[in-house]
């Protein structure tokens, strides 16, 4: 999902920073994205569970471009499992990536925007179950609910100071990595699609276009 959003931002003329843990994977992705779309993609390796690594990543992005205008909190981890089988480290892993990671990135950029009176846009990718919870993905549901609460709270706290906070809760947008893990049985995707009025999963470009709208000046009053 992050790749699709990043490519759409790039097509529309944004300069894009991409961040994840594995430097070689990131560098290859940046090269492929620039080869197809042109423009600038800066890959910065960062584990969002580590607040010092997040600060360093944000500082490097800020220094490289002379400022940053927007943040997409997309990094996520999830474990599909009966909850009683999870160790506390498994819980920490998902909460660390989803809740703490989104918070650290939001804080690192928010502090810089407020200190420099610069406007900023924050978009967090949550999930349809952030609102109502979901069995068998409980750490993810709890963490995404936290990210949604952070979004709504900061929209009020930082909105008056020029920082908007929004979230998208995608339904099924099949991608290999997540879907092989989360929906190992093909019947599970059919069941999910049955509950969607349009009776089909989302296409990546449909998420990317909404994300681009919410990061752009076309949606400045959406907070
Ligand atoms: C039980 C598990 C486990 C599993 C890991 N652990 N996988 N426990 N079942 N399947 C436990 C480990 O045993 C360990 O605990 C602890 O979790 C940490 O494991 P690590 O190997 O150190 O992994 P780590 O680097 O922390 O990453 C774990 C992970 C990773 C986050 C689950 O595997 C991952 O990134 N998965 C894929 C990411 C993903 O699916 N992203 C898309 C999310 S989609 P112990 O006690 O043994 O040390 C999403 C939106 C939902 O979030 C929308 C759905 C519709």
Please provide a written account of the structure.
The chain has 223 residues and is mainly alpha-helical. It has 9 helices and 5 strands; from the N terminus they run αβαβαβαβααβααα. The chain has helices at 2-11, 23-37, 51-65, 88-115, 129-132, 138-158, 176-182, 186-194, 204-215; strands at residues 16-20, 41-45, 70-73, 120-125, 163-168. The strands form 2 sheets. It has a 3-stranded parallel sheet with strand order 3-4-5, with helices on both faces. Strands 1-2 form a two-stranded parallel sheet. Helix 4 links the parallel strand 3 and strand 4 (120-125). Helix 1 (2-11) packs across helix 9 and helix 3 (51-65) packs parallel to helix 4 (88-115). The longest helix is centred in the middle third of the chain and has 28 residues, at 88-115. It is globular and about 50 Å long. The two termini are 22 Å apart. 29% of the residues are buried. The chain binds hexanoyl-coenzyme A. Hexanoyl-coenzyme A binds at residues 76-79, 81, 85-87, 89-90, 93-94, 97, 127, 140, 178, 181-182.
Q: What labels describe this entry?
A:
single chain, 223 residues, mainly alpha, two-stranded parallel ribbon, 9 helices, globular, binds hexanoyl-coenzyme A
- Rg of Cα set: 17 Å
**Which molecules are bound in this entry?**
hexanoyl-coenzyme A
Strand content: 5-15%
The largest sheet, given as strand count, sense and whether it forms a barrel, is: 3 strands, parallel
Q: Low-confidence parts, pLDDT < 50 over ≥5 residues?
A: none
What spatial order of strands do you see in the largest sheet?
3-4-5
Rough outline: globular
| Helix percentage | 40-55%
* Sequence of secondary-structure elements: HEHEHEHEHHEHHH
């Amino acid at each position: 999902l992050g790749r699709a959003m990043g490519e759409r931002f790039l097509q529309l003329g944004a300069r894009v920073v991409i961040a994840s843990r594995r430097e070689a994977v990131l560098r290859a992705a940046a090269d492929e994205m620039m080869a197809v779309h042109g423009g600038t993609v800066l890959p910065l390796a960062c584990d969002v569970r580590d607040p010092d690594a997040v600060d360093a990543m944000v500082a490097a992005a800020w220094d490289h471009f002379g400022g940053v205008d927007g943040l997409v909190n997309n990094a996520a981890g999830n474990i599909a499992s009966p909850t009683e089988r999870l160790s506390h480290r498994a819980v920490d892993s998902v909460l660390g990536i989803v809740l703490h990671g989104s918070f650290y990135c939001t804080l690192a950029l928010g502090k810089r925007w407020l200190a420099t009176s610069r406007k900023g846009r924050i978009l967090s990718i949550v999930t349809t179950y952030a609102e109502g919870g979901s069995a068998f993905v409980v750490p993810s549901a709890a963490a995404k609910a936290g990210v949604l609460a952070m979004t709504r709270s900061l929209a009020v706290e930082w909105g008056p100071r020029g920082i908007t906070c929004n979230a998208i809760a995608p339904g099924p947008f099949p991608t290999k990595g997540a879907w092989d893990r989360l929906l190992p049985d093909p019947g599970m995707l059919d069941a999910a699609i049955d509950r969607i009025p349009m009776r089909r999963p989302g296409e990546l470009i449909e998420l990317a276009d909404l994300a681009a709208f919410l990061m752009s000046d076309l949606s400045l009053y959406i907070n």
